[in-house]
Amino acid sequence: MKPSDHLINAVRQIDRAIRVRGLRHTLGLALRVIATEGPSGIRRRLEALGPALRSAKPRGPGAALILTVPHTLHFARRLQSVLQQAGIEAALSDNDRIASDYDTVFTFALQNFPSVPADRCIAFQVEQSVLPHRWTEAYLTRLASCRAVFEYSQTNIAALQDRLPLARLFHVPLAPPSGIAAIDKPASPTVLFYGDTTPPRRAALLSRIAAEIPELQIETNLFGPRMEARLSQAHVVLNLHATQGGLLEVARISEAIAHGCVVVSETAIDQQEHPDLSARVIYAPEGDGDALIAALRALLDDAALLLRSQTALTEAAPDRFRLGVLRGLQGLGIIAPATFARLATDYPKPYDPSHDGLLRTCLTLPETPDRTASFLTHNAGDYLIWPGLKAAPGWRGAALSYRHMMRAFRAAGIVEALVVEDDVLLPADFEARLTTIRGYMDDCDADLFSGLIVDLHREARVLGVERRDGLCLVQLDRAVMMICNLYRRRMIEHLAQWDDGDDNAFSNTIDRYMERATHLRVVTTLPFTASYGASLKSTLRDADNHKFDALLARSEKMLAEKVAAFEAGRAT
């Protein structure tokens, strides 16, 4: 490393440490290192940081800055690549003193960069909510002041629910990249652990494993080019929690996988949140040293098993980090919907191509895990849980979500699909009702079944009424509400044409746009078939769903009056 890099690293680290932790704490830490390790201890730490991050300020419009510490450099570089694909130049740096020169600053490990203006900061939150010494009140207060927060963990999202508005919170998993190429490794397999070895439980596990696995190599200050070189040589990476009950260290795991390393890890309370790791990581029960040793020994002693495990790393998988970033950029208005559509062609499909029978999709947001859990608790059926899109204001995100779904249905030749929202409540006999409803729709060539119409238009016309199997089936010329709808080909086509250039919130919300399709035929029931979880917080407004109660009562009363008038007219 150049002498100038040593000097720049030293100055930046000392400057930032003083601003973050204070002069006394910084001096105390430096003296402890010198007392225990000598001046070489300071030198090793600076060497481990790698070359100082220096890049010229981008000149293009909307240029951004990415601030990162060495621990998150892998993801900072991937972010830089995604921004470049979206036409956004971004400088990569570890110097927050230059943050005021940029309108948008993406910041990994916010607590290390005190000079970043909050209103310009998009913070990548990389701490664990289960670690109180990290999840401090001061940290959360600063996080809440940021323009937006990109959060990797749904467990953390649940802990942030009451700390910042939904509109400023985005789920961006720290997942491995796609298209991982096979990497040639040395003939003799090795195991690498890299990270902090001072936590007592981690130190105890490492000591026990090292006694049985002589191939284990332990690195405590490994960053930058030196770390990349070690990962490229290692066959297996060992992942251990710093504390009992910790979340999965997905950043370290994803980085290791990107370098062709098989990962052996302790289980974690949140590992089900990371399905893209399930086939790529070998898990052993948390704290079980014997199981960890057995997993490592099996890989080291069985060349065929090690090869199969390495091959599994290269299997095609979506880049959930890249897709999460693109979704967040669209949600913040940094990229246009057309740019998102162009770059995110591998965004999860809103249907399961292998599913037989009627396609069923539940629209939810990964930022509202409580609503998703409520849906799964209260509703039976084989529904695909689909992560919707976000935008400001919220109604635009809903409209973009429906347009995306309908375009996907249209492209796949799907002519009928049931789509519900995550706050829907369906009756116990819903399947029987749906069979009757679909038969009636066939008979009258209807384009939509609406399970709930909260705000029926006063000019809505009843076109037909029929009673079958205990249901009062009503044909209408329009409907508004998306909570539980069965869409057929013509309505799918209509919603696929929603115009994101129209910002009129009175006429171009997705349900009002649907309501304008009076040339199409709607079927509903009286009383309505579906309901909603009234106590769940709305994703569009700062209130719960009780605000709909009065509208719903008025709407159902109006429909009853229109049905009565229609039947009276038909009788005469």
Q: Globular, elongated, flat, extended or rod-shaped: what is the shape?
A: elongated
CATH architecture type of the domain at 348-571: Alpha-Beta Complex
The radius of gyration is 28 Å
The oligomerization state is: single chain
Low-confidence stretches: none
State the strand order across the main sheet.
13-12-14-19-16-20-18-17
Number of strands: 21
CATH class of the domain at 348-571: Alpha Beta
Mean model confidence by pLDDT: 90
Determine the structural class based on helices, strands and strand pairing. alpha/beta
Largest sheet: 8 strands, mixed
First-to-last CA distance: 94 Å
Strand content: 15-25%
| Helix share, percent | 25-40%
| CATH topology call of the domain at 348-571 | Spore Coat Polysaccharide Biosynthesis Protein SpsA, Chain A
Please give the count of helices.
19
